[in-house]
Structures are given as structure tokens and as C-alpha cells.
């Protein structure tokens, strides 16, 4: 973990001038203020979704999966639970029996037809409502509104040298991947989009991504 921290900081010092680090702190404060506002505005939605999940499949309502954040710090990335309670066992059983599913999982870390997802979970994923609890991650300073999508520690080797790009910033609720095809892109394209974002991101780019995210969410583009 110390190697992650040192490597990410060295990358940031080489690529980002001092004023960029000041802007990074400003972005964090703006993100936190916006997250607090959105949590208040979406509180009725939180309540309705929580009740739907509880009525269909009981508790817990939220699911926290460990992801790797800025400087390699692990955090629990929050979502509304969209899978059955025994999803881990279901995945192990599926991958053991289905070679095609195993190859798809190894390639994309996702399944197109995932039997672990509940009916309400399908709706939440298509509308991206499952990711609303990540506003709490933003409020805690673990995530940004805009940035690379948070990945697991097991996925980090697939980023190659781009891992330093990823580790130098906070992962985001949305980013270039979400507005550039999302699940319709390959994993390699996703990595490249993260590299481009880190190297070229600006306040203007962040605002543009937020606006485009609204369009993508409304159309359901690439969501599954």
C-alpha cells in the first residue's frame, strides 16, 4: 500500500503543477457541497427505493463493496443492493458450471445476463438509481462526482502503467466511461478513457460530463 501512495504522489507531482493541486482541493469542496444538496433533494427517492428493496428481499438495503481509491486507499463503495443475498455463492456456482460465463467474467468482470440481480435490481441498474448512495462516499471525501469509475484491487493490474493515473485522483460517480458508451465499451477502452480524463480534466470537462450524464441516465445508454 505504501508503494501505491508513493507512486501516485510521484506521478501527481510530475504531471500536475502546484496550482492544479489547489484546484483539486477546490473540486473536493464543491463536490461535497453538491453531494450534500443532492442527498437532501433525493431523500424521497432514497426512502422509496429502500422500501422496495426491503419488501422484495429484506435487509440490508445498502451494499458496500471494497474498491481502491486515491493513493491506493481502500473504501467501501456504496450502492443500493441490487443482487440476491446469496449472490457470492450463485456466482461461484455459475462460474464453475458455465465456461462461457467464466470467460465473460474474466474478460469484463461483468456478466451480460447476470442471474444474481433481483427484479428491482434490474430497474435500479437501468436507471442508475443503484449508485445514488455513492453521494455519501463523495461527502466523506472518498469519491468525486466526476472521475474514473472505482475498481477493485484485483482489477488494478489490468490498468498497467495507467494505474498511476487512476491512483492519483479520486474515483468518480460518473466520468468519461459513462458518457462514452459505458458497458458497450471494452475494458481496454475504459482504461484509455480513464487515462484521458486524468491527463486532460478541467472544471469545464467535469461540468460537460455531468450534463452528458443526465442525458445518458435518461436514455439508459449502455446501462445494464
Record the SSE blueprint.
Elements: H1 2-15, H2 18-41, H3 43-57, E1 62-68, E2 74-80, H4 87-97, H5 99-108, H6 119-127, H7 134-139, E3 144-146, H8 163-167, E4 172-174, H9 187-200, H10 203-219
Parallel strand pairs: 3-4
Antiparallel strand pairs: 1-2
Helix pairs in contact: 4-5
List keywords for this structure.
4 strands, globular, mainly alpha, 10 helices, two-stranded parallel sheet, single chain, two-stranded antiparallel ribbon, 224 residues
Radius of gyration of CA atoms, rounded to a whole number: 18 Å
Stretches where pLDDT is under 50 for at least 5 consecutive residues are none
Task: Enumerate how many helices there are, as a single number.
Answer: 10
Shape: globular
Q: Roughly how much helix do the residues carry, as a percent range?
A: 55-70%
Number of strands: 4
What is the first-to-last residue Cα distance? 32 Å
Largest sheet: 2 strands, antiparallel
Strand order of the largest sheet: 1-2
The succession of helices and strands, N to C, reads HHHEEHHHHEHEHH
Summarize model confidence as the mean pLDDT: 85
Strand content: 5-15%
* Main structural class: mainly alpha
Question: What does this protein look like?
Answer:
The chain is mostly helical and 224 residues long. Helices cover 56% and strands 9% of the residues. The strands form 2 sheets. It has a two-stranded antiparallel sheet. The protein has a two-stranded parallel ribbon with strand order 3-4. β3, α8 and β4 form a beta-alpha-beta unit.
Q: What's the quick description here?
A:
The chain has 224 residues and is mainly α. It is built from ten helices and four strands; from the N terminus they run αααββααααβαβαα.
